[in-house]
Write a structure and sequence with these properties.
The chain is of the alpha/beta class and 446 residues long. Helices cover 32% and strands 25% of the residues. Bound molecules: flavin-adenine dinucleotide (FAD).
Length: 446
């Protein structure tokens, strides 16, 4: 097969531009692919600056849309490995039949077409910041500005201590369900086929993705067991000494609705996994057997940060080394990061990632246009459903404030609603659907 045939052979899907490059650019690519099958260079679209956004999640979609609004002549390219978007927020409801998959699923092509940017369906495997080139399995893309918004990766090291076989078994047989929809499919199957016994869920330490979601998932699985008269128990093993958010609301749901269905174990770390015999040993020395489980490990920023050479060390190990106000990578004024891979103490939530995207787009636009950049607080609004039919929810709402003395952010104007028993709890259950619809509208439509 010659190079031209290879190009034809590898399918390339791009929403708004053609992709095949010329022979010269192809030769350039061939010289630096380290044996990975090269394709072509994505041609430039228009005269404006090329801005590449890696990741079409809650942050990347927001950044790409805003960039096109603030810098209309920019050639914005969103590189995303998935072929379609399925939402993580609200997926806990889907696990137990609370919403249809259609509600969570959206088209990247529509998002790009509606908002005037390019969706390049490809997986990034390398970033050369000197050459300002991103390498993907479908070809390379040059940039003038780059945004890395590729989310999180799991960090199993605390449990596995380098045992790759154990990590593989945990990832494939007991997926956490905090990264992609494939994992949710597996967990949904586990719930549907659950016959009884213990269903273990873990809550990691650190600033893990979506603080309330593991407790919400526990409530909804317990609700399912209760309604379907399954003799089972959700065992919540929490590495933290206390429920990390909306504790009053979750504790009352656990004790009042799910006394016989949820056992909450605070400050508990799994020291040993015996997956063959379906048993774990905790740091208290308890042996706990299980029929099924979803083990949620600690999280870190996407490993693309290491590939790009911009991962932090020390306390924020594995998170992006950026200026916390401008989102610019320290020492590289062409690269920015957005979303859950950030080192800031913000909640790792979709609403935060989406609203933060406005800042990132404004920060880049101000650089390009020579205008003043104004930081605005990202906004976190997070609903957690604790029961279905009718859906009853609790929620937290907060902005953030910068403290110059210790160079961190703290909650600002924070408010919670934790009483799921009253009318406000039922209203919150309905409001959750409106919240999701509004954000999908924001990300996928004009
Ligand atoms: C079960 C669950 C429930 C949640 N509930 C809520 C909730 O109720 N409310 C809320 O606000 N938030 C919730 N969240 C959190 C929310 O989903 C995340 O905070 C949000 O998705 C973060 O956005 P992001 O853009 O940083 O990352 P992501 O949305 O994960 O996007 C990253 C994107 O990058 C892509 N990518 C990664 N690597 C590459 C590569 N090499 N090449 C190309 N593309 C790549 C990925 O495919 C992905 O699309 C929940 C999460 C989960 C898992």
């Amino acid at each position: 097969m010659n190079r031209r045939d290879a190009l034809k052979f590898v399918g390339i899907s791009v929403a708004t531009t053609a992709v095949l490059g010329n022979e010269a650019s192809l030769k350039n690519d061939l010289s630096n692919t380290n044996g990975v099958v090269p394709v072509a260079k994505l041609p430039k679209n228009g005269k404006g600056p090329r801005i590449v956004v890696i990741g079409g999640g809650w942050s990347g979609l927001s950044v790409a849309k805003r960039l096109k609004q603030y810098v209309p002549d920019a050639d914005v390219v969103m590189v995303e490995q998935r072929t379609s978007f399925v939402s993580c927020p609200i997926s806990n409801l889907w696990l137990v039949g609370g919403v249809e998959l259609e509600f969570l699923s959206h088209s990247f092509l529509d998002a790009a077409n509606n908002n005037g940017y390019t969706y390049f369906n490809a997986s990034v495997y390398d970033i050369d910041r000197k050459k300002r080139t991103v390498y993907t399995n479908q070809g390379s893309v040059d940039y003038e500005y780059l945004v890395i918004a590729s989310g999180i990766d799991y960090d199993y090291s605390r449990w596995t201590k380098g045992d790759a076989t154990l990590e593989y078994e945990l990832r494939t047989k007991y997926p956490a369900g905090f990264q992609n929809h494939g994992e949710h499919e597996t967990i949904k199957g586990k719930i549907k086929n659950f016959k009884g016994g213990n269903f273990i869920l873990t809550v990691p330490g650190g600033n893990y993705r979506c603080l309330p979601a593991p407790y919400e998932r526990a409530c909804l699985i317990a609700d399912y067991m209760k309604k379907n008269k399954i003799k089972g128990k959700v065992i919540v093993m929490d590495e933290n000494p206390e429920i990390t958010i909306k504790a009053k609301g979750f504790h009352s749901a656990f004790s009042e609705m799910y006394k016989d269905y949820i056992t909450y174990m605070p400050g508990t770390v799994i020291e040993e996994f015996d997956l063959k015999n379906k048993k774990v040993t905790t740091d208290f020395g308890d042996d706990i057997s299980f029929s099924d489980a979803a083990f949620y490990p600690r999280v870190r920023g996407s490993k693309l940060l290491e590939i790009a050479g911009i991962a932090k060390d020390g306390i924020n190990k594995g998170e992006a080394n950026i200026d916390q106000i401008t989102y610019q990578v320290i020492g590289d004024d062409r690269v920015f990061c957005s979303g859950d891979l950030r080192p800031m103490t913000f909640s790792k939530s979709g609403n935060t990632a989406n609203t933060e995207g406005h800042n990132v787009a404004r920060s880049i636009a101000s650089r390009i246009l020579g205008t003043k950049y104004i930081w605005e607080s990202p906004h976190t609004r997070c609903y957690s459903v604790v029961a279905l039919k009718p859906a009853r929810a609790i929620f937290v709402n907060t902005d953030y404030k910068w403290n110059d003395s210790d160079k961190t952010f703290t909650f600002f104007n924070a408010a919670t609603m934790e009483d799921w028993r009253v009318k406000a709890g039922v209203d919150a259950g309905k409001a959750l659907i409106g919240w999701g619809s509004n954000l999908y509208q924001d990300m996928f439509y004009k």
